[in-house]
Amino acid sequence: MKLSHAKAIFIWGTVLSSVIFLALTYDSQRSFSKRTHEEKLDEHVAAGKWVWQKYNCNDCHTILGIGGYYAPDVTKVMSYRDADWVRRFLKDPPAVWPAERKMPVLNLKDQEIEDVIAFLTWVNGIDTNNWPPKPLAVASAAAPNPGEEIFKTQGCSACHTVGGIGGKIGPDLTHVGSRRSKEWIEEQLINPKSHDPNSIMPSFAKLPEKDREELADYLSGLK
Asked: Is residue 193 a part of any domain in this protein?
């Protein structure tokens, strides 16, 4: 008995879909080593992954799409934080970032900290197709300017006060535009130690140039 036209379409559609699925799966498997920079996997990266699991970091943080959303996604954290800042933060989180949501002091050993940094650095290099995306600002007349959004998303208020809101570790920036030029602020963002060798402020040299310029525009406009 001949197959009905509809049944034939279903069967051939299933076969074609299966072939496409298998081809895409093969292509993905073939590209994994390149996209994940498999050659950079070493004992320190592996040890850092074990530290990450040992202290249940996924309970609060998301990495590669897995984990909680109580604390920041750290998939690309090494794109905007240098190793020195991460090292100081892991040693004493509240002192470096006294935010409302405080990360506990885990009393990590020095080697554990170095291994976590190695793990985060490796993850940062994975081709994730631009995931996670940057937060979208709401486009409206009342929306904060881009520099203010960057100030918030980079956690600057953990150390600096603007308009009575923020931390006290760094200088009050409410009127920083009255005493510092945009050029001075841009240099400070790239290399804080250029103005004060003892500065504990992290460098934002890894921020895209456009983001740094918008942040400097915002700060220099605070008068």
From this structure: yes
- Residue 193 lies in domain: 146-220
Q: What sign results for the dihedral spanned by CA atoms 81, 87, 88, 92?
A: positive
The CATH number given to whatever domain includes residue 171 is: 1.10.760.10
Count of the separate structural domains present in the chain: 3
Structure tokens at 201: 């402020």
- Report pLDDT digits (tens) over 52-76: 999 999 999 999 989 998 888 999 9
Residues 6+ apart with CB under 8 A from 2: none
